[in-house]
């Protein structure tokens, strides 16, 4: 079967789209809240352009959800879900960034500091993931619910003024 004939995305593609939409939706909500406080016209224009770009990204990715290997439906997450998801994204990005930084480090004392920071980020990620899973904010073993949550957050972010 050729790629054009496939009717669903692969699981790994679906999960990558999930990560991109979830991360960008949370970021979009923050940018839309923060732009109101940006007084510098140049910085405000950069924010405006970033908001438009991220909105475009989300809008282009959302149609791929219909190609996911399962259907979706679930109730909207509370602000606690947003706040915990934002922290999860921060800690996940911290793990990635510290891992990369360690590979670029030649100074042993700096490597030790970065390694300690990495371990704290890993532990923090574990704590917030467990919190989100327990509260039902991150149904990581239920792809249908996971993708449904993404779509609801993305739509909320796109509809914000």
UniProtKB/TrEMBL annotation:
Subcellular location: Spore coat
GO BP annotation list: sporulation resulting in formation of a cellular spore
Alphabetic keyword roster: Capsid protein, Sporulation, Virion
Gene3D superfamilies tied to this protein: 1.20.1260.10
Keyword Transferase: no
Signal peptide from the UniProt entry: none
InterPro entries: Ferritin-like (IPR012347), Spore_coat_CotF-like (IPR012851)
A Pfam cross-reference name: Coat_F
Similarity section: Belongs to the CotF family.
Protein name: Spore coat protein
């Amino acid at each position: 079967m050729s790629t054009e004939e496939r009717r669903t995305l692969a699981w790994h593609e679906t999960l990558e789209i999930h990560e991109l939409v979830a991360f960008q939706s949370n970021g979009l909500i923050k940018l839309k809240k923060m732009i109101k406080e940006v007084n510098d016209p140049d910085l405000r224009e950069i924010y405006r352009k970033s908001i438009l770009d991220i909105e475009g990204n989300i809008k282009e990715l959302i149609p791929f959800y219909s190609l996911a290997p399962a259907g979706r439906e679930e109730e909207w997450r509370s602000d606690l879900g947003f706040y915990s998801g934002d922290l999860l994204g921060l800690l996940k990005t911290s793990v990635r960034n510290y891992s990369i930084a360690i590979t670029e480090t030649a100074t042993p004392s700096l490597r030790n500091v970065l390694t300690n920071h990495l371990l704290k980020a890993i532990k923090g990620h574990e704590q917030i993931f467990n919190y989100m899973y327990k509260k039902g904010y991150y149904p990581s073993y239920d792809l249908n619910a996971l993708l449904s949550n993404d779509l609801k957050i993305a739509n909320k972010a796109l509809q914000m003024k």
